[in-house]
Amino acid sequence: MANTETSLKEAASIEGAIGAALVDYTSGMALGTIGGGKELDLNVAAAANTDVVRAKVRAMELLGLNEDIEDILITLSTQYHLIRLLKSRGANGLFLYLALDKGRANLAMARHQLKKIENELDV
């Protein structure tokens, strides 16, 4: 099992990664971040993407969908933003956020690697 720091380092090593965060979507607080910088303030991204997660959860409730959200993908002109809701024991209310450079990333591999990181993460 990996801790938050190890998991974020592994996320940052994904090809094309710009930054990553572990976020509590009940509070909007980043529990840990790596990368980012001038082009991406991960604490702002954590808070803003919390609103995205809450909106999607609410939409699913209103639609009566009894499904689990695996991930949410936001595609920008030069970036991918992946939000992976964690389902592991003790991780309820948390998500992994990963920003990728669209020109350098392999989206399918990034999703696969983020799922692997989730499975190894011990919060």
UniProtKB/TrEMBL annotation:
Protein name: Uncharacterized protein
Record organism: Streptomyces viridochromogenes
